[in-house]
Write a structure and sequence with these properties.
The protein is mostly helical and 403 residues long. Helix content is 83%, strand content 0%. The protein has 2 domains: 1-94 and 325-403, no CATH class; 129-280, Helix Hairpins (Orthogonal Bundle), CATH 1.10.287. The N and C termini lie close together (10 Å).
């Protein structure tokens, strides 16, 4: 199934800082790493069953398509973070003799920003760092808030679904084990009954020979007992076999649904962790509070319009200076002016971006694994059912995957 594969197809200081924060980063990413290790389990598939085969292909294609959608979104964010890192390199390479005007604009921005912060600290409950973070996403904050709220609501829903399905799967496995025990007991009963009937017949024959007694009634009663036992055993064995088959179908269905929920749960958890990290908050309520405080601060800032006008003047000057060096997003540096003047601040900015990029890379890796796992499962199906190639190709096309 090669066609399917083709389709889906500066410094020491910074190193010291990264090393100093590595333990913290490891702890923060522990739960994330654990989540990304899980891959969907296809369960036990009867490849000869049309209905099971169709369910398997549909479920696998949905996993592949969702992974592709996730990959497209993650790649866009990854490219954005990478462009910020490239901008840092461009700033680092600006010759010293050309930096004075840029540095002066940055110093002015910091001066006026501190004056504004002093006033804000008296009237609002938002730190300068939080203000800068919200300000850098001001144009998209409404959408970001809605996204975070939706993520949290959805997280609760899929977590409940996941727990429910895991409980259902465990219950079904317990049921299957009970049925297997019953099957063993029925087999044992059949053997015991057969042995007992044979022994009785032998006893009756011996008694009849020795005492010349009439053994017709005992023989007849033994035959009736054997017949009743046989009917009971066969009837219960048949019902148990039917229940066992039905339970196996229910288990496979639970696994199908659980795989879909697990992928959604992992992707939603990773996305939620990422937006929390992006805004340095722990919940939607916290970010919404900061946004309200930011709006309040902006309104109060109008009182200091002159200060703002001067700040804007130097913001434009800073952006104009940076545009000369072809930065992808020069506007962001008005909120990171300190990094232009202080090498340690620049190292911290770079480190944070690298952490973000690593998390994105891990999410890319996970979704690639899910996609490849799905492709491999379809290839395995084709190996086992080569005669169903046209049927499978038709289903893939219906799911939006063209061969």
């Amino acid at each position: 199934m090669g066609i399917i594969k083709k389709l889906f197809g500066k410094i020491r200081k910074e190193k010291n800082m990264v090393a100093a924060s590595s333990d913290k980063t490891t702890k923060e990413n522990a739960s994330y790493t654990k989540l990304t290790e899980e891959l969907p389990d296809p369960g036990q598939i009867n490849y000869d069953s049309v209905s099971e085969r169709h369910k398997f292909i549909t479920n696998t294609c949905e996993q592949i398509l969702e992974s592709i959608q996730q990959l497209e979104e993650l790649k866009a964010e990854y490219q954005l973070v990478t462009s910020y890192l490239t901008d840092i390199q461009k700033i680092d390479f600006i010759p010293k003799e050309e930096r004075e005007q840029l540095n002066e604009a940055a110093r002015k921005i910091l001066t006026f920003a501190k004056e504004r912060a002093k006033y804000q600290n008296k009237t609002t409950k938002i730190t300068d760092s939080q203000f800068k973070t919200i300000a850098s996403y001001e144009d998209v904050m409404t959408g970001e808030l809605k996204k975070m709220k939706d993520y949290e609501i959805y997280q609760s829903v899929i977590k409940n679904d996941k727990q429910h399905l895991e409980g259902e799967k465990s219950f079904l496995y317990d049921q299957m084990e009970d049925m297997e025990d019953k099957h063993f007991a029925l087999n044992k009963m059949a053997v015991t009954t057969s042995v007992l009937v044979i022994l009785l017949f032998i006893v009756f024959v011996i008694l009849g020979s020795i005492y010349e007694a009439n053994m017709q009634i005992p023989f007849f009663m033994t035959i009736i007992m054997a017949a009743i036992s046989a009917v009971y055993i066969l009837q219960n064995a048949g019902m148990n076999k039917k229940d066992l088959k039905l339970t196996e179908l229910k288990i496979n269905r639970a696994i199908y649904l659980l795989n879909k929920v697990k992928i959604k749960y992992i992707n939603n958890t990773n996305a939620l962790d990422y937006v929390y990290e992006k805004f340095n908050v722990k919940s939607y309520a916290e970010l919404n509070y900061l946004w309200e405080q930011y709006i309040k601060a902006k309104e109060e800032e109008k009182i200091y319009r002159k200060n703002s006008e001067l700040l804007e003047l130097y913001n434009r000057e800073l952006i104009a200076e940076l545009k000369v060096y072809d930065l992808a997003d020069p506007d962001i540096w008005i909120y990171q002016a300190a990094a232009i003047l202080d090498e340690k601040e620049m190292v911290e900015v770079r480190h944070n971006l690298n952490v973000r990029r690593q998390k994105l890379r891990e999410r890319l890796d996970y979704n690639n694994k899910v996609k490849e796992n799905g492709i491999n499962q379809i290839e395995k199906l084709l190996e086992k059912r080569p005669q169903s190639r046209e049927e499978i190709a038709s289903m893939l096309k219906d799911m939006g995957i063209n061969l």
